[in-house]
């Protein structure tokens, strides 16, 4: 009997593998279904264990049946009262074994192939079991109270702090962050980032008027005297330029003179203009209280005021801003700035001793120390994690439970039944064995009590 059963199971397994292979070619995307229509080596070993236990339980049934026949025959042959006790025990053992065989078999298939109601529970109720499993998980594992209490009991904040406070762990996190940053910057295309940055800067500049801000900044600079160094620099450079280019200045003045004036007069005028210009610049450079400096201060003050309040000046500045932003040189500057920034960040991420990685590592160690010792930080981190987890659970609970339900519904009923039986069938066969033993003992007890009461 055991060999026949094994041969049948081997034929079913071969058919299952062929069907599974065909299903894989027909539906290459059904990974979950393939998992439920194929058997791993561990599954095959479990199925062999189930078959051995089935054979053992069936052998016990046949044994008690044989004992019953022998005891009955011995009783008719006048073997004595003991034959009745043995026959009663064997008879009850057969009843218990058959009842438990029916119960165990009814879980996976129709006993003897008969469509008895409430049998073959797993293949016929598979979808309902999937729905019930999804509802059970949703109610008992995906509720906000369960998630909060579980996370609060774990104390993630303090554990995370203690873990980050270890230098080797901080080094590991820093290295992982650097790798992620390098990967992100490598994946991003420069043209896309440049377009986004350029558009963001242009949109932000167009949306905000710059003249009042420039006016306020210029007003503060003039009030603090911050522009005087710029004036000093301009005056010094202008003086040096005039000293080096005296002939050019005089030639320019002479070239603008009328054609009817004598050349020596033009030369004298050029020399006079050059000397006066050089004297003016030198005095302005050397005298901080020069009247021209005061005039320049008043001009800048008035210009700062116009930038903030004069409509015509503000309109001109906005027009100039649009022209500047629209120039290709400005967009090229934005592009080159992004390229430089990306190269700098990638280099810093690759260098273990770079300032960026050292600062990140120090920040992680500091964060870990605070999380490990200060309860207020632990409470904040735990609260953030609890809030995030509760949000995910409450928002996507239906999707998670439907994933369970849909996954179970997509499984093939026959192969699912065989796989479940392979995992729990061996233990279920002990029910048949126990039913045989317990039934025999119960039958013996009942027969004994009946005989005692009859006596």
Automatic annotation (TrEMBL):
Cellular-component GO terms for this entry: plasma membrane
Keywords from the named record: Membrane, Transmembrane, Transmembrane helix
User: Does the record bear Transit peptide in its keywords?
Assistant: no
Stretches that traverse the bilayer: 55-74, 86-108
Entry-linked Pfam families:
DUF445
Q: Look up the domain of life of the source.
A: Bacteria
Q: Which residue stretches belong to region Disordered? A: 1-48
InterPro entries from the xrefs? DUF445 (IPR007383)
Basic and acidic residues composition-biased segments:
1-16
For whether the record's keyword set contains Membrane, the answer is yes
Q: What protein name does the entry list?
A: DUF445 domain-containing protein
Q: Give the species.
A: Streptomyces avermitilis (strain ATCC 31267 / DSM 46492 / JCM 5070 / NBRC 14893 / NCIMB 12804 / NRRL 8165 / MA-4680)
